[in-house]
Amino acid sequence: MLHTFVALVQDKPGVLTRVASLFRRLNINIVSLTVGESERTEISRMTIVCEAPDHAAHRIRASLYKLEITVDVDEVGRSEAVIRELCLIKVAAGPSGPTQQGRSQIFELATVFRARVVDLAPESIMLEMTGAASKIEGLLQVLKESGYEILEVSRTGRMAMRRGHHTSRVLKALGTPDPNAPTQTAFPERPEADEILPNEFEDVHEEEQDDHG
Predict the structure, then answer these.
(1) What is the CATH topology of the domain spanning 82-159?
(2) Is 0.85 topped by the overall pTM?
C-alpha cells in the first residue's frame, strides 16, 4: 500500500540524507520524494511516498518526529488532499516518424491528455503534463503502443496539499469516510511522548550525533 506523507523540516545540510536513512533502517521503500521551499522561513516541505503495510503509517509518522530536524508531519490520502505530479516527456518525432501522421498525432494526444508542447526540435517533441500518476502512465502507454520512441522521461513524484473546508456533499463525492467530520486543514498535533513508538534501530540517532560532532 502506498502512503503519502507531507513533512516540514528544517532547511539544513544533510536533512535529506537523514530522512532517507531513517526509511532505510525501517526497511521501507521510498517510491518518490520531493523537496522544496514552504510558506515558512527556513523550513522545507517534503512529500514522501512510500510502500508499506496499512498499519505502518503511525509507526512511520512517529519515527519521523524522532528526528530533531522535523517540524510537522502529516499523512494525506486522495480523498482529503489534492495530489499532482509533473512529468516531462521527450518523444522522437523526426521527418521519418513511425507513423504517417507523425507529429500531428502527438499534438492530438497532447490535446486529449491536456499536455503541453514545451519544446519542438527537428528530431523530437517535448511534452509537459501535470496530473495524477495514472494519467501520466496512460499517456506514456499510448505513446509506446502508437510506436513512438520515448527518448527521456523526467517525473517529479507526488506533490500533495490538504483540501480546504467543503460541504458534506462535496466531501461525500470526494470519498471522505465520514462526511460529517470536519476537514483537517492544518498539520495534526505532534504525538505525545507515550504515543511515539520505541526506536527499533538503536543507531538512528547515532548518525545525527556524528553529524553534529
Answers:
(1) Alpha-Beta Plaits (3.30.70)
(2) no
